[in-house]
Amino acid sequence: MLLRRHRGPARLWVAVAVAALVTGAILLWSSSCIGLLGTYRVQDSVVNELWRTADSDGWRASSAPRTYWPPPPNESESNGYLRVRCNGGLTQQRSAICNAVVVARIMNATLVLPELDTNSFWDDESGFVDIYDVRHFIKTLKYDIRIVMSIPNITAQGKTKKLRAYKIDPPRDAPVTWYRTTALEKIRKYGAIYLTPFSHRLAEEIDDPELQRLRCRVNYHALRFKANIMKTSSDIANKLRSEGHFMSIHLRFELDMLAYAGCFDIFTPKEQEILIKYRKEHFPEKTFVYRERRLIGKCPLTPEEVGLILRAMGFDNTTKIYLASGKIFGGKRFMKPFKAMFPRLENHSLVGTGKPEENTRGLAGSAVDYMVCLLSDIFIPTYDGPSNFANNLMGHRLYYGFQTTITPNRKTLAPIFMDREEGHVSGFEKRVRQVMFNTQFGAPHKRIHPESFYTNSWPECFCQTKARNHADDCPPDNVNDVLESQFQNKRKIYRSGS
After folding, report:
1. 8-state DSSP, 132
2. Residues 1, 417: Cα–Cα separation, whole Å
3. Do 159 and 77 touch, CB atoms closer than 8 A?
4. pLDDT at residue 309 above 80?
5. PANTHER family this protein is in (predicted)?
């Protein structure tokens, strides 16, 4: 089994759920119990407890509709074709795909398989069909929207030609009303529209919980990586777990993030020139004061700071760690202290099998990192600001069992680290522990702005088997059969009418 947990019966369902994800056997309307709705008494927690999750208390993930969900339109009923170009990194694109499905549903439109803008960010030629299982994507969403591979040709006045999509740059975080008015008017007029760029082009907070659940169906069920990526991820996770638990760390100490954050003072003059140049080329010009940025938690943690946090929490040098990151800016100079504290470091290049160059570079490499982090016993994001990779992973781990996530509070930790740098080391580890054990560790909590829906889909995408409140009731186990029946009935009506 891909995920053989050494955590006792309380975690058996986690192994089943995640293993099913990797093998592609997860059923969309599964009624298997997932997770715990409870709160850690974090001040009493010890390291051994962090490798575990608690009892489910009847709560499980569920993105099934709670109300009548009409089948998608057939070809003649569709308002037109929707094309989107998803830009950004892997999980930014992933969120855009989820939004595209929701927008197609809102407009009663047919979705053309989303395009991935991989060249500008990744410098490779990968597209949707190279990263995701297209057949699974279309099959899983057949009750929600109609999906085609490309816009078909049209015949007019005896001539056949390609239907051209009208190009629109949607507003950032556009409300549902924009798609029901402006975008709908254009798609009806032209027959097809092309929304580009399509990153963050639909508001995350939507009043309709069914549309939010559709987002979860896309993100956690329909978007499955291709078999070669899943196998590489599975092999890596199996190797890492062959000797026990392992944690994954998304070490966001990379050129783009450091330039974005404006935290330059710890680097050499030459390195600062590189960061400043990158910032001018990619971000709005702004003057930063390093100390001020750090004190408000805007500076990514250094590798050494991550190591000091883990050591203060009680993790020792036998802890196996998988690093998900790009090229660490500053290189060996910054990694050396971390490696001295935690020598058992791995990444997809070191632990992969077969021909890692085929599955661990560019967008595919990010997909492997994503899956291994999803499968790890503990996940630690070191910078959860605009880093969609970390945000989406936290949401995915929440959905598949409230798995442990340790999120350092950079703002609260900053003065502690700054005191240490000035020679005030007395009580350092105790102060760090007080901060770190006063956190959620992945336990469910109500989503509060500015927390992203993709980080925490509670409560829309969860239910309780024996709910105290009616609103928390789980949908019937046969919901998939109900939707299938609705879908087939509509088809029969359409055929008889034609």
Report:
1. B
2. 42
3. no
4. yes
5. O-FUCOSYLTRANSFERASE FAMILY PROTEIN, OS02G0726500 PROTEIN-RELATED
